[in-house]
Specification:
Belongs to the group II decarboxylase family. Sphingosine-1-phosphate lyase subfamily. GO terms for molecular function: transaminase activity. The protein contains 15 helices and 13 strands. With about 475 residues, it is an alpha/beta fold. A seven-stranded mixed beta sheet has the order 1-7-6-5-4-2-3, with helices on both faces. A four-stranded antiparallel beta sheet has the order 10-11-13-12, with helices on one face. It has a two-stranded antiparallel sheet with strand order 8-9. Bound molecules: pyridoxal-5'-phosphate (PLP). Pyridoxal-5'-phosphate binds next to helix 4.
């Protein structure tokens, strides 16, 4: 038995976290509500925790499970038999690899990727890591979907430099599916790769009714697609799939080096040593729930999403930022309240909803990831929402003091030193005593300040925050 009460201490630590189950945490976690599926996942995770995906010949079980998962996923993503896939640690790693592969497949000076503004932040991270310039094309202001003509124009404006075009199915921020077919066709006409980021939709859309327009490999120009199993496949964290239409398209993803005296390193992903646990858990959970199980979960989830959407749309002061195409909602408010206060109020009532800051012409919103386990709580959610809206309206929107706003706008994040950041963290309300950090219970004043900060400053502030959090 485990001595020293360590597990008790872990249990105590977990009490400070957001709940992972119960359907009231509407970002970060995915709850099927199926206790037996969770149990299967946990057991498989433990069984394979110490295995190492570094060398698939040493652990052939892992290669076999990876092939099985790819084979299971191919038909769901409309992929031809030629398609190949790789299990990665998550959506970000899948996207990083898609970008790196595209860049290395077409060595050009000043490589560019063309994406809608709503593309996930992981594309920006890939741009940063791999020296690819990200060209962000504005989306339709009403539908929040990418505009095919504008995407094509950006491809032409950067002709000779574009290594990748990407779209979302759906976007995280607004939950809408980009017009994959025409954008992939425009990419194909120009001989360009097109990636579909189906990280969050790839395990929902195959069972959505009515079926959405083709969003996957059924669109001939699509060359790669990412889908996270640790989202709507409800598997333990650490598993995503990156599919390529052909093995040729994937080849530059692989890395080998013989330039050192140790084993010849051979990797399909950015990680080298990696636990087989998440892969085994995904293999087990996906088959345990099965296609019929997912069909039921998706029906439950989308029905709950529609009820939430209808409830939000009919409430005073609230509106949907876009008509949802899947299981995600983005909620905006009128001037009587702000989304950050609303998020705090919902938090007090036991519901976590995720604030999203304003960007270009897109207003700040609250993000809701709806899971099967949320379905039973829709009425409770709407009750909490009514109370929260009333409280936030009574308090009025948080104001950022004009001098604070001006001071923030005047800063050049590139030239700030550590002491200046400590001052800024204090201004933002995040500094405690002696360089310690505090995370205030009510985040609205902090979020409102971050919301008006120029993006570069917002990034710098949050990096300074993380730096101190991890000292
Ligand atoms: C979650 C998500 C990602 C990133 O995935 P991680 O697993 O968090 O790394 C990328 N794109 C979309 C659309 C997502 O929802």
């Amino acid at each position: 038995m485990v001595a020293d009460g360590l597990l008790d201490r872990l249990t105590a630590l977990r009490r400070g976290d957001l709940p992972t189950h119960g359907g009231r945490t509407l970002a970060y976690v995915y709850d099927s509500g199926l206790a037996d599926a969770d149990e299967v996942g946990r057991r498989a995770l433990a069984m394979f925790a110490s295995t190492n995906g570094l060398d698939p010949t040493a652990f052939p079980s892992l290669a076999a499970m990876e092939r099985d998962l790819v084979a299971l996923t191919r038909p769901l993503a409309g992929a031809p038999d030629s398609a190949v896939g790789t299990v990665t640690s998550g959506g970000t790693e899948s996207i990083l690899l898609a970008v790196q592969t595209a860049r290395d497949a077409r060595p050009v000076a000043d490589p560019v990727m063309v994406v809608p503004t709503t593309a996930h932040g992981a594309f920006h991270k890939a741009a940063h890591y791999f020296g690819v310039r990200l060209v962000a094309v504005d989306v339709d202001p009403v539908t929040k979907r990418a505009v095919p003509e504008a995407m094509a124009a950006a491809m032409d404006a950067h002709a000779g430099h574009v290594v990748l075009v990407a779209v979302s199915a759906p976007s995280y921020a607004h939950g809408v599916i980009d017009p994959v077919e025409p954008i992939a066709a425009a990419a194909a006409e120009r001989g360009l790769r097109c990636h579909v980021d189906a990280c969050i939709g790839g395990w929902v859309l195959p069972w959505a009714e009515p079926a959405p327009p083709a969003w996957d490999f059924r669109c001939p120009g699509v060359t790669s697609l990412s889908v996270d199993l640790h989202k709507y496949a409800y598997t333990p964290k650490g598993v995503s799939l990156l599919l390529h239409r052909t093995a040729d398209l994937r080849r530059p993803q692989f890395f080998a080096t013989a330039d050192w005296p140790g084993y010849t390193m051979l990797n399909a992903t950015t990680q080298s040593t990696k636990s087989g646990g998440p892969l085994a858990a995904a293999w087990a959970v996906v088959q345990h729930i099965g296609v019929d199980g997912y069909r039921d979960l998706v029906a439950i989830t989308l029905a709950a999403t529609r009820r939430l959407a209808a409830g939000i749309a009919e409430r005073d002061h609230l509106a949907l930022a876009a008509e949802p195409d899947s299981s995600l909602l983005a909620v905006q408010t009128d001037g009587a309240l702000d989304v950050f206060s609303l998020s705090d109020e919902m938090g007090e009532r036991g519901w976590f909803v995720q604030p999203q800051m304003a960007f270009r012409d897109l207003p700040a919103t609250l993000h809701l990831t709806v899971c099967a386990a949320t379905a039973d709580g829709v009425d409770d959610f709407l009750t909490a929402l009514d109370e929260s809206v009333a409280a936030a309206v009574a308090a009025g929107p948080v104001e950022v003091a004009p001098e604070l706003r001006d001071a923030a706008a005047a800063l050049d994040p590139a030239t700030l030193d550590d002491a200046a950041f400590d001052g800024l963290l204090a201004i933002a309300g995040l500094a405690g005593h002696d360089g310690a950090l505090t995370v205030p219970k009510r985040m609205a004043p902090v979020n409102a300040l971050l919301d008006v900060a120029p993006p570069r400053l917002r990034e710098a502030l949050l990096i300074a925050f993380l730096d101190r959090l991890t000292r």
